[in-house]
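Continuing the series of single-chain predictions for the mutant panel. This is the parent chain; the variants come on the following pages.
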Amino acid sequence: MDFAPYQDTAPENNRALSPPPPRFTSRSPNPISPPPTRGTTDPFLSSTLPAPSHFTDEPRGDGRGFGNTDLESGRMDVNLFETSLPLRLDFEAMLAYLLLPPAGGVFLLVVEHKSDYVRFHAWQSSLVFTVMFVIHLIFSWSPVLSWILFVFDLGLIAFLTMHAYQDANNLDRLELPFFGGLASSFVDAE
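Parent structure:
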């Protein structure tokens, strides 16, 4: 191919052209998809949903408790150390305090739905460090008080992170005064 500014022939005559697009008889843009079926197909008739009696609050007559499963055996299947994120329980609880509090706690409240232990620490982190943020705003006029509060924040983050990591083995909760009880009530109400 010649790229000289003055050529005898146009460059479009010499270059290879793309193949024409294939023509399909189907109206679907994806040729692999099955053709639409005509007829009366009700998606609710073909689903495998349980019967409405499964969701009643009355005990069943067959001795299996409420619904389809026994309450006692249903509790045995719950894994208390399972989390929504692909992280260990103790690491997630630590992240509630380490991920730029209170934003880390709010983030874990949004994404974590399986572990009450992690949700407790996320609630406590969000509540405590939101109040600490407001206190920082109030005392921002004094550089000395701001630095004292900052050092207190770092110590509190280290203390709570250490306890969140250590107490994950037996799922103990270190509840701070007022905020811990409030966080526990929020988690228990969920």
